[in-house]
Amino acid sequence: MKAIILAAGEGRRLRPLTLDRPKCLVEVGGKALLDYQLEVLRSQGISRIVLIKGYRAETLERPNVKSYANSRYDETNMVWTLFCARQELSGTVIVSYGDIVYSREALRRLIDAPHAIAVVIDRDWEAYWRQRCANPLDDAETLKIDSEGKIAEIGQPPACLADIQGQYIGLMKFSPEGLATIVDAFDRAIRSGSLDGKAPEKAYMTDLLQAIIKQGHSVWPVFIDGGWVEVDTVHDLRLAVTRERLARIGGSA
Question: Rounded to an integer, what distance in angstroms lies between the CA atom of residue 121 and that of residue 180?
């Protein structure tokens, strides 16, 4: 099993802290977000780690971490970044955003999930979002679960809180079968110029997941209740809840 961390973004909402470093190198409590994540991955025996760089790529060097670069980081999005390391899409792969940190327990649940495509979903998201923004609907996305327990909708603008049965955190796992599914979806998108209505270069990972759901593939949630943190803005960085959640993650077994 390997992990691919998507870390090409600049993090403009974290300026001026990202003027000289990418988003994943912003520090909380004296440690970069990336280093928290590397520690969690290695604690669960994942030593094959791939980092996909972009903005200020020269600052992103870590021992025993293989790296690729998205040279078009300033005009592309997450899906394009992932496929900059297409040759790494084999075996079983965990894909993670670079601006999050998650607990060992969350990662263990994902590793143990038996599904071809498994996505970590936080059921206890609302209280956290209310500390991050005045209106949680402003920055949350839809997540709907069908009668079989699979994800039916993900990543759309919500009309109300009922549209959000949990929040996608940017952490997922693909088996060899799951990787074949997303590679096929990406190749179709390149040929057609559209991935769930967006140019492939501009697509988010949720667009890729929604596209394969529409094609009839199963995408399963792996539920957690907290146990992760995202630093997307300067406001996030200054919040007490950011440090509190990181402290709990650091102490988790």
Answer: 23
